[in-house]
Amino acid sequence: MALTLAEIRAKLQAQDNKSNAAPTDSVIYPHWNVPEGSTAKIRFLPDGDTKNSFFWVERAMIKLPFVGVKGQPDSKRVEVQVPCIEMYGKEYVCPVLTEVRTWFKDPNLEEMGRKYWKKKSYLFQGFVRENPLADDKSPENPIRRFIISPQIFNLIRAALLDTEMENLPTDYNSGLDFIVSKTSKGGYADYSTSKWSRKETALSTEELVAIENYGLFNLSEFLPKKPTEIELKVISEMFQASVDGKPFDLEAWGSYYKPFGLGSDASRSVGTKPSVPVAKPAATDTDDEDDPPFAADNNDSDAEPMATADPVQVNKAKSSSQRAEDILAMIRNRSKVA
């Protein structure tokens, strides 16, 4: 039976409301919500992709800020996250980083370069063995995914390079738990006291049964979708507009990428949806070309700043606003000369 116009409109409205809602994925464990001063104990598991030498995959996203949305005078600042295509292999060229790398040759442009440099995070999987989050809803499949910041990853990696670690921490019988400890520093969440457990433990019967019943995730399947040639062109246009201080053009770019929460396809801007498995095994940080051409920031994480911000940090941000405008003018002048 054909639907009436009112019923069609109601269905469309329901779809829009569902799409605009903030995405919730209980499979991802939000360790950044752990109360300050508490710890969570995690047991990492191998990648389901046996071709991956590591038990994680690397993500690289670029944040493009805009002053607002074109045609919406009252819109506030918005931000679009796009995948850096370099995470899929060195044979790919990122249009944003190609330009940004040249900025670091000029000390006056370094601050702006940091703003547009790719933000790394690392995708792991495993069990949450001790959970301080009272309102966390564990899914039926107890194997969770973890989005790990560079600060925590560097601690994980350093321990793996330590010759005193005899067994892989993901070993089912002689593995190690990882303890995520949350404190604060300068008004921001700090995880520098996180560490591996000293005592090796075997997986429990329940955990082994869960692996048998549900299997391991192929982590690369949860990386953002690799941009097509057309999408790379769109990313390049958005980057130029962002640098020039222009608003986000929903009509021109909205069918490809959108700020989170703006329209029905918002999930594409954050790369949280599963995609075709196209990524190679994660790279390590030993390749200088893959590292930022500036000192790494240990607080470069996915977590939100602590609720109480340090006044020094706030004043610092305010005093740098005029400097940002001056740098923006320099970049524009460079483009005109080129």
Class based on secondary structure composition and strand pairing: alpha+beta
The level 1 CATH classification is: Alpha Beta
Estimated share of beta-strand residues: 15-25%
Q: How many structural domains are formed by the residues?
A: 1
Please state the overall shape, judged from the principal axes of the Cα atoms. Answer: globular
Query: What is the average per-residue confidence, as pLDDT, rounded to a whole number?
Result: 79
Largest sheet: 7 strands, antiparallel
Architecture (CATH level 2) name: Alpha-Beta Complex
Instruction: Outline the low-pLDDT stretches.
Output: 17-24, 264-289, 296-324
Question: What is this entry, summarized?
Answer:
This protein has 338 residues and is of the alpha+beta class.
Describe what you observe in this structure.
- The chain has a single domain (25-337), classed as Replication Fork Single-Stranded Dna Binding Protein (Replication Fork Single-Stranded DNA Binding Protein).
- It is α+β, with helices and mostly antiparallel strands and 338 residues long.
- Mean pLDDT is 79; it is low at 17-24, 264-289 and 296-324.
- The chain has 9 helices and 9 strands.
Keywords:
single chain; 338 residues; alpha+beta; 9 strands; two-stranded antiparallel ribbon; Replication Fork Single-Stranded DNA Binding Protein
Chart the SSEs and their pairings.
Layout: H1 5-20, E1 39-44, E2 57-66, E3 78-83, H2 95-103, H3 110-116, E4 119-130, E5 144-148, H4 150-161, E6 178-181, E7 183-185, E8 188-190, E9 195-196, H5 205-214, H6 229-243, H7 250-253, H8 311-319, H9 321-337
Antiparallel strand pairs: 1-4, 1-6, 2-3, 2-4, 4-5, 6-9, 7-8
Helix pairs in contact: 2-3
